[in-house]
Amino acid sequence: MSFGIWYKFMDRAKIKKSEETDRRGLAGLEGHIYGWTTPSVTGVDVIGAQDEDFAINVFIETLDEDFWFTKDLVEVLGPEVGAVFSLDASENENVRLPDGSWKQRPKRQ
Questions:
Q1: How confident is the model at residue 51 (pLDDT cuts 50, 70, 90)?
Q2: 103 - beta bridge partners?
Q3: Best label site of 2, 11, 59, 83, fewest CB within 10 Å?
Q4: 27 Cβ neighbours under 8 A, 6+ residues apart
Q5: d(CA 3, CA 9)
Q6: CA-CA distance, 106 to 109, in Å (whole number)?
Q7: How do residues 19-32 score in pLDDT, each as one tens digit?
Q8: What torsion do the CA atoms of 45, 37, 24, 78 make, to the nearest 10 degrees?
Q9: Is it the case that residue 4 has pLDDT exceeding 70?
């Protein structure tokens, strides 16, 4: 099964305007893409009309919360150069480079 994935982990994304995103106060907000899932397997609550068994997870920093959206509600803005992610148990962090790849470095104090 192919969903034509056109984005990468931690790409910047903007939530598109729809009746449901407006009602929830999410339209126009930006965040980072964390991944995707098949809702029929995971049972996540998806925002948007589910025409296919696919949802994208976007973490919205200003709300400190992530949401699952149908792909028609997510505008991918592309890689955010300088974005950083790390795991709590790791001594390293990863920083996004201009070409979209990641470079590992020691965590900054």
A1: confident
A2: 95
A3: 2
A4: 15, 16, 17, 18, 21
A5: 15
A6: 9
A7: 999 999 999 999 99
A8: 180
A9: no
